[in-house]
Amino acid sequence: MSHIQRFPSAAKAASTNPLKMSQPLGAALAYLGIDRCLPLFHGSQGCTAFGLVLLVRHFREAIPLQTTAMDQVSTILGGYENLEQAIRTIVERNKPAMIGVATTGVTETKGEDMGGQYTLFRQRNPDMADTALVFANTPDFAGGFEDGFAAAVTAMVERLVEPSPVRIPTQVNVLAGCHLSPGDVEELRDVIEGFGLSPIMLPDLSLSMSGRQPTDFTATSLGGVTVEQIRAMGASAATIVVGEHMRVAGNALELKTDVPSHFFSRLTGLEATDKLVRLLMELSGKPAPARLRRQREALVDAMLDGHFFYSRKRIAVALEPDLLYAVTGFLTDMGAEVVAAVSPTQSPVLERLKAATIMVGDHSDVETLARDADLIVSNSHGRQGAARIGVPLHRMGLPMFDRLGAGLRVQVGYRGTRELLCGIGNLFLAREMDHSHHESGESHGCGGGSCGCNAV
DSSP letter string over 148-176? Predict the structure, then answer.
């Protein structure tokens, strides 16, 4: 990735409007897709508090997240005692099916041996053998959100999945990347079930983070894939891996169980969805359902209607690497020009991006690169920069705290691609219909605050 360099005029010592999110936060989101799970940050209370606030604002749900509450002394001398006490307290009070531990910069700087601590805990606490434990190394100071999510999923595969001598021909594993919203996971499940197949989604955020109304308080995640289902993944006929950052987890699952993996860099767009449907037809031996055929026709029709508004539009995109790849690929398919693709971290998928400028940076870099753009696609943290340069903002990714239904958006499959196409296309159409756009010193009509302003 030698050609992926920081924009020369944007060289700076500090990030002024960060795009990057930490590894532990990604690991926590992965753990939240497990039924009756309690994520545990092995670090200070502040590490947990900031991550908790971000997830609560995005999903507008109660987020179960605990901490080992490391202090100065335990950080220097070692944090095993804090970890053991935290796990014991959680098990005794909350009875979770699984505890997912994610390290932080505090413990990783010290160099905690998480593998050794797992073994030691099991030896000293045989009475807790029924509670599943997963430890993942997720330092704040390296990698980013996708890396932490992938590390947690890989750790769950290595710790929980069991090889099986039998194969269930209708059972399919799905390793769903962090760039898929709960709505995306639900859509993917519906598509797979339409072929008569039974998917096991890891993790399954569609059951835990799409809006639940429990009858009583619960201190663990409510809904998601169960630990028993994860253990049964070794009996599946195939594994669908979505996202480049899930490739390591897919390889680990295939190595452990001999279940063949099928990798998809993206599931947004006509060609990408066609590829998925062909695979499902092959696995099930059935033709595509009539519902999917109608959805494909509707997408093709929407592409014909909408490509006039995308043609030659200049768009800047700033998202996590795999979502960045999916969105930029869709936009170029529609005839738009991606003038800038900004990622918070390095990733192999950046090599395949089609954009005039590809860089690892933050929202301030987007603000510099997008001054002549027609649209910015990023999360809610990009709203101030978009407002300053007067460019409309289409919100995607995490966090999205200034719009309702962030976790329910669908942008995969035929239906999701059509919704994304219409959502962005309507912004272009609104600007063309507005002849008084951004008049100096006067109120502008950006479509209800799409550029980050306070228009109603």
Answer: HHHHHHHHHHHHH----SS-EEEEEEEEE
Phi/psi at 172 (5° precision): -130, 135
pTM over 0.85? The answer is yes
Residue 309 and residue 320: Cα distance in Å, rounded? 26
Round to whole Å and give the CA distance between 46 and 27: 17
Q: Taking the CA atoms of 10, 12, 18 and 19 in sequence, report the sign of the dihedral they define.
A: positive
Rounded Cα distance, 439 and 450, in Å:
16
DSSP H or E run through 280: helix 270-284
237-280 tens-digit pLDDT: 999 999 999 999 999 999 999 999 999 999 999 999 999 999 99
Residue 268 and residue 329 in contact, taking contact as beta carbons nearer than 8 Å: yes
| CA end-to-end distance (rounded Å), the chain | 43
**All domains in the chain, ordered by first residue:** 23-160 (3.40.50.1980), 168-289 (3.40.50.1980), 293-433 (3.40.50.1980)
In sequence order, what DSSP letters do the residues of 405-427 get, joined into one string? TGGG---SHHHHHHHHHHHHHHH
Of 299, 265, 291, 296, nearest in space to 425 by CA = 299
Residue 86 to residue 121: CA distance in whole angstroms: 12
Retrieve residue 101's tokens.
Answer: 């531990």
C-alpha 334/C-alpha 306 separation (Å) is 8
Q: What is the pLDDT of residues 329-372, one digit of tens each?
A: 999 999 999 999 999 999 999 999 999 999 999 999 999 999 99
